[in-house]
Amino acid sequence: MLKFERLEIREITLPLVHFFETSFGRTTVRRILLVRLFGQGAVGYGECTAPEGPFFSHETTGTAWHMLQDFLVPMLWKRKVDRASQVAALFDRVRGHPMAKAALETAAWDLEAKLHGIPLSRLLGGTRQKIACGVSIGIQDSPAQLLEKIAVELAAGYQRIKVKIKPGWDTHILERIRETFPAIRLMADANSAYTLNDLEHLKGLDRFDLMMVEQPLHHADLLDHSRLQQELKTPICLDESILQAEDVRKALALDSGRIVNVKLGRVGGYSEARKIHALARDRQVPLWCGGMLESGIGRAHNIALSSMEGFVLPGDVSASRRYFARDIITPWVEVDREGFIAVPEGPGIGFQPDWDYIDSLTCRRMEFAPPPEYLNT
Ligand code: OSB
Ligand code: MG
């Protein structure tokens, strides 16, 4: 039996060392919700990966706070569960809001691993001791700045480079990159910046030998991606279009893409991520772990997820220092010269939150306790 005895949610404000720009906008300061879940003498940590504005999906830091406070936290106490793997089902009645759900669900997984005294990666069945890392580099103010950033990340050892593209920042950028770095593992992420009207233009991407093109079309589409994939040699990787394993099943049936970016927040937590993992193994679909500019707690969860065997491609999980002048965990996440992150061996997520620093970043905080009948049975 897992007993959730107390819960804290807080919002922190954390500036990025460098702005991050995608086809849908620029982020300079993160507003992040952190979850602390107490039970049976242990504490689990979760992070809500919802961004500041509703431009990646409908969720924001603010909507997640509302969903957690008014709906999801009360549901956590409705029924006792034996395992963290049963937590996602407590939220079944709530449509959407996967990132808000995942903040609680991932904290429950960390808590369960700590109660067993084992690493979260082991509780998940992860088999890797180190994970392969790539970087995601946003749209820059000039092509020269992008090339400089790529050079820095390659020198640091990262195994693949992902660049953000949009109309007007695509072909000529990729041309410049290939002139300078002809043989690197390279991919491009459009965050839904194109439509099928751009079909001929998108076919031009085939000449850059990209590992994949990520989410070129509408965030909720599978059909147009299927049409595009039939015309492209480059594999399509789906990000925004995949919210559950069922979406992967449909995408494979339609051949809408051949690679899946898994994000814990976007799919509502580990339960759904594991369903996607099982399906991908059956169908031999390569997976990799995406990122949402997470602080150390979310990053630690991404490392645990990436330790599972189906995560065969380098993910967007990279070192703390690429994002923040100071991370909220110790030790910070570091990448070795070959572009790997070591999977921690301590209990749970395997990193310690730096509470003094987190306190200094906190702008709101709320504590929740279960109803008496939950604690008494
Ligand atoms: O589409 O993968 C994306 C960041 C914010 C929102 C969406 C995406 C991203 C990234 C960055 O690409 C991944 C990271 O470095 O955390
Ligand atoms: Mg993406």
Q: Summarize the main sheet.
A: 7 strands, parallel
Class computed from helices, strands and strand pairing: alpha/beta
The CATH architecture of the largest domain would be Alpha-Beta Barrel
Give the class-level CATH name of the largest domain.
Answer: Alpha Beta
Say which CATH homologous superfamily of the largest domain is assigned.
Enolase-like C-terminal domain
Fraction of residues in helices?
25-40%
Structural account:
- The chain is of the alpha/beta class.
- It has two domains: 6-118 and 354-375, Enolase-like, domain 1 (2-Layer Sandwich), CATH 3.30.390; 123-352, Enolase-like C-terminal domain (TIM Barrel).
- Helix content is 34%, strand content 21%.
- The chain has 13 helices and 15 strands.
- The chain has helices at 61-76, 87-90, 98-116, 120-123, 143-156, 171-180, 199-203, 223-231, 245-254, 270-283, 296-306, 355-361, 372-376; strands at residues 6-22, 25-39, 42-48, 130-132, 135-137, 161-164, 186-189, 213-214, 236-238, 259-262, 287-289, 329-330, 340-342, 352-353, 362-368.
- The strands form four sheets. Strands 5-6-7-8-9-10-11 form a seven-stranded parallel β-sheet.
- The radius of gyration is 20 Å and the shape is globular.
- The model has no long low-confidence stretch (mean pLDDT 98).
- Residues 22, 56, 136, 189, 191, 239, 290-293, 316 line the site of 2-succinylbenzoate.
- Residues 189, 191, 214-215, 239, 261, 290 line the site of magnesium ion (MG).
